[in-house]
Amino acid sequence: MVPPRDSPSNQDPPADVRDVGADQFLWIRLINLREQIKSISRQVTINSGVTAEIMRNPDTSSHSGRQGLLSTLVRTLREQALLTQEELAQRSGLSVGTIRGLESGRIQRPRIGSVRMLANALSVSESELSALVAAPKPVGSGRARAAASTAVPAQQLPAAVAGFTGRAEALTLLDRTLAPETSYQLVITGTAGVGKTSLAVHWAHRVRDRFPDGQLYVNLRGFDPSGSPVTPAEAIRGFLDALQVSPQRIPGAVDAQAALYRSLLADRRMLVLLDNARDAEQVRPLLPGSPGNVVIVTSRNQLSSLVAAEGAHLLALDLLSGTEAKELLTLRLGAERAVAEPAALDELVAMCARLPLALAVVAARAAVHRGFSLADLVRQLRETRDQLDAFTGDASITDVRAVFSWSYNTLSPAAARLFRLLGLHPGPELAVAAVASLAALPQAQVRGLLAELARVHLIMEHAPGRYVFHDLLSAYAAELAHTAEPAGERSAARHRLFDHYLHTAHAAALLVMPNRRPLDPPAPVPGVTPELLADYAAAMTWLSTESSQVLAAFNPAADTGFPRHAWQLAWTMDDFLDRQGRWPDLAAAHTTGLSAATRAGDQSGRAYAHRGLARAFIKLGRLDEANLHLVSALEHFTDHDDLIGQAETTRTLAWVLWSLGHRQEGLRQAEATLTLYVLSGYRIGQARALNNLGWLYAQLGSYDKGRTHCEQALALQREIGDRRGEAATWDSLGYVRRHLGHHQEAITCYENAAALLGDFDDRHELADALTNMGDSHLAAGQADAARDAWRRALDILTDLGHTDADGVRARIQRLGDNGSEPVDR
């Protein structure tokens, strides 16, 4: 069964997600088993010697040298295997042009999929070739991909810790995890601010060369003041992205995603750092479970069940010793200053309770006020502590709060206000533009205030223009916001922040899908400065960078009196999350939006949320539930005479009914969709509905009806300039004309579709058009042209890691040298 042409994101959902996930799991295991067998044989082949000799070339330190070595290595290995370029292309599944481009140096940054295919064909380690492909691919402009993949292992570690000192015993214990033949799990536990993350990150950077397959990192935010820890599904998805798994290859079910993640780590040597975990349940799905991998977990809790059930080791991190604490301060303050006032140094250590976070804040304050003696700083800190109410019986906690207050009280009024407002931000990161809207200030002024906060270590700039909080400091800022900011100002600040995300995300959504009917969000309140996004690439970059912040805003918006923002934010993320295959996130977003709209009595919001949930459930294989949500949405749009809303809902309903096997009812809904679009005057929708009907008629064998509808769609799309819709219609016409026996006309249709799709980001659709083009060439007796089209499609699908690559590869193999065997479709 083939779905209508404009099913959500033009991607076919799995009929049974669990089956798809299981197939992928078995496929990955077979690949790993094959690689194990091949790696044994490689140890006795001459290729290793050739590679080693070339790699010893002193020019490998430069990028140009690496690329020259890559071309030399490919050519040398091919000649040793007694293969021509054509024979290597046949064996690897790559095109002859790709082989020639690699050997000539014209292709300097091959895709990781191409490297893998080449390595398999030449019986050489993939890592030996990948080591020579060190530079990222250039990012194109306009409709080009917002980011390019690289052929290097995952590198997710945060920046190395500056000025780390002490913890010798803990580092020794961590070093014991490095035995290569076993998997090892270590939980670093200790109180907040004791330096668990600093220790883990410092050690990880120190031993990163022991993990050639890469390092994975996630901040699980287990004790984040917002109360929104990272779910295992979110963490796994981030790991799959880091491991360069394309969205099309990621199954929808979380269990299947976890199986794929564990399969990818099998037989690899990787370090997995799970930071700030709340409990064992958050960690357990993220454990690789295969030898050679090391997992380091940090948590305020001891995670006893992980120790008992999974055999994890426990490292209880205590406060710094007095000597270590003085070493840390001395390193940050400078030896001359510390030696000059040993008594004051000892008192600062005591007043910071030997807690590394507090010591870092004190050192940062001292660095700002270099004209002050340490005794002056001690006196100021003592006065601050004496002024605080003892809100807890724990004197060490009171001292730490005093350290924070001491630094906070020295801020300029504008920086102090900004610090308080930052406590209202729900996301894991703070971008300058969003903070400017939160505070209703110009970005230039905000940058200066953020720099002031960073200088005294109340926030940290972990990337240019992006800041993070320690969760203790975030909680302190939130406490100040609720005690020092009036309720009205807190609400106004949240309103500005939600407006910032809504209006920027809405603009991004329309750049990603230009022909989508826009929402009508309320105008942003004064002080909001939405970000200006120039084109598709800028929109995708913003969505990729800010998606965690936008997702984190849904629940706070719903819970603090902004239900319209909640469901409209979910709408803005539809296409991006769908393209990324993040369907559980999409379902969660619309669930929050539906709940918020229901509580607020917003019937329009409910309808949009119902339709959004249906879209997510379709991709998750939950078609019956999707059908119920579409019926609910359709009731609202019908009651309110919203013709376009009805049409967009019946369009998706037609797809669901067709997928459930109710073909005549699906066709009836598709015909109703066309009528509704015509009545509404929405010509973009009308053209796409015509293409849908043409495709469905063709699937039922009514090729003449199909051709008539598609040709009407094409004429309208050309008139209104809907190039993406035109590409889909050319593909439909190619299918119709091929089945009518007009093979040359079908080839022309697919060529037109491919030419248009080259301007867009949907490379899977391009590969599909090329595959169909190859089928038509073969049906027309043009074997060489068929092989060339299929190889172009295979290059794309291999780079995407898409399972459709297997079918295209099988076509090429069945064709053989004679090109006489037909290919079934």
TrEMBL record:
The keyword Isomerase does not apply. TPR repeats lie at residues 687-720, 767-800. This is HTH cro/C1-type domain-containing protein. Residues 74-129 form the HTH cro/C1-type domain. It comes from the Bacteria. SMART domains: HTH_XRE, TPR. It holds the Pfam family TPR_12.
